[in-house]
Amino acid sequence: MEPDKPIPHQMQVQQLFVKHQGALKRYILSLVPDFADADDVLQQVFLTVSDKADDYELETNFMAWARTIARYKIMNHWRRQKSAPEALSEEVLETLATEPPEEEPEESAFARNLGDCLSQLPPTARELVELRYQRELKPGAIADLKNWTPNSVYVALSRARALLRDCLESKPAATEPNA
Amino acid sequence: MPEAMNDPRLTLLIDRYLDSSLSPAEKIELETELLAHAGARRQFWAQARLHGALHEAMQLSAAQPGPQTGFRETLAHWPMWKHYAALFVLFLGICYWSYNYKPALEPKTPQQLAVLTYRDAAAANEFETGKIILSGDLHIAQGTVELSLFNAVTLTVQGPAHLDLRSPENIILHQGRLHAHVPEPVKGFTITTAAGRLVDLGTDFGVSALTEDLVEVAVFSGQVEVFAGKDQFILNANEGVRLQPGKAPEKRTLSQGHFPLPHEHLGNLLVDGDFEPDTQLSTYDIPFQAGRWSGDVAKLVTAENGVTPESGTGMLRFINTFNHMEDPDQEATNLACEQWQVIDLAEFKKQTPGAQFQVRAQARFNRAADSIDSGFALGVYAYNGTPSGAHASWKKHSLRLAGHFKAINTDSDPATWETASINLNVPREADFLLLRVYAVENRKDDPISEPEFGGHYADSIQFNIQRAPVPASN
Predict the structure, then answer these.
(1) Pair B460, B351 in one domain
(2) Could you tell me the domains of chain A?
(3) Measured between CA atoms, how close is A157 to chain B, in angstroms?
(4) What is the ipTM of this complex?
(5) For chain B, which residues score pLDDT lower than 70?
(6) Residues A86 and B21: beta-carbon distance below 8 Å
(7) Is-contact B359 B265, C-beta < 8 A?
(8) Where are the alpha helices (DSSP H) in B280-368?
(9) How many domains does chain B fold into?
(10) A159 and B CB contact within 8 Å
(11) B13: containing domain
(12) pLDDT on residue B109
């Protein structure tokens, strides 16, 4: 049997990307809210992370490094889409991007709490959340589907998210359930 | 400076930004707040974080195999032993029912008869997928649902509907339209209406009871025995009948569009996903037609470099990061070697206009033990137009209707194949899909006169499409 070969550096970096790609996607979605666009940016980040793997020192903060790459990709994305009505100004994006959110609590506990909170939503709110986030429909398309006005969809979605935030805040901080 | 935290107006503005629906005036208002207040920025991140987490949670829910499942179950993150325990309890329940059910006796207490495996958006207020349906009255105000009975019968029911589920083999339809799929072994499944009784003889058939006085039945395959007053007759495939109390049955032709259509697995739509030796493979970038592979320089190979095809005798080998459509003087991209296939949806959309499709794509990747590059990925993207415009559509990002990609890292063990898979809800306006499989460069300085990839393979690529149930169209 051959002795175990050390894992090449680039591969270790790509493994880190795979491990953190959920958190990176959430970060990108904050500044590029369109789901397909965010996927594109994530893809570009993946290519650059692979390309620049040699620049990354293992044992240092991978997320901080990858977020910096993501920030550049996000800025590039919006520069290309300058005419998009929803594009925030570069100054605002830079300000937001350089003030990243606090460290996220333990992910599986957050996901579990979110699952609990989703199950407590009233049926209509839950349906809207599914249409928006599972079927990836924009509010205008949801309005067409439901025969509502777009404004009532915005308001209802906003209320659903507010209910979820209230529910999440009422949950104890990330703790593992008893085995 | 005043804090803007938890300002309802700010909440609404951030939500509108996340929904890509800010007006120009609202955009200026939001930008002013974000630049001026650290609290506004904290609130932004809190709301944006939920936006990302909801998307992840819902996509995770949609990614569960089989019929669409509810997010609650998915997010509960049950340990596997609990899943097995639940399945075991369900199995015991079915066994108990099988041994103890006596058709002659109507159940006195509600019994578990079915699982709701699908409901469309219109029925979402009333039903959640995964719900256990008990014996007794079932009202569906609107929308379409699919019930999987524990005797393997599948009912697709369109509201407004009122059924009385007496047992898995005996159902009373007061109102509504349904399609029944009854597998061969379950003969004798009976639907009773005010105008007559229908006994299945192993078949697919539709029943429409828009009122209790007017019932229409059509058989799509197999046979149904009809009992209406003094009349008793067999209805064969492609025959229909109208039943009205006190009147003689009136045979007539009824189109399938008169009844809801059940979900349908359309199968694996990819051509040559196994890369057998007769596979058509080009190196001229994104193909202009459906049904063939094209992209960067790649070739078909048999077992080599210690890697054996995952299925059959052939597999795809990625070679270079350029293709022959490009300017020959242009340098390689040094990023990825891509192969593409276009999947044309036109025929399916023609057959069932307005239908919702769901895709599950999967690819297997492997590489030689001494190879350096380790990343592979799989992507699916939706567009409208015709496949001949696929290349132009890909280049113009704004034309993309939806898309997902999945990147994976592979180990350097040539004996094992790693899997990447994607689920995509196809937008109704999409006309074709682009499938992209690619190997990603770690080391960029390979001379392009030689293979840039030292033994990188894909095989057993699948692209399965399922059409969700479709309500009656007339």
Answers:
(1) yes
(2) 9-97 (1.10.1740), 107-170 (1.10.10.10)
(3) 8
(4) 0.89
(5) 1-6, 61-109, 185, 326-334, 444-449
(6) yes
(7) no
(8) 346-351
(9) 3
(10) no
(11) 8-62
(12) 62
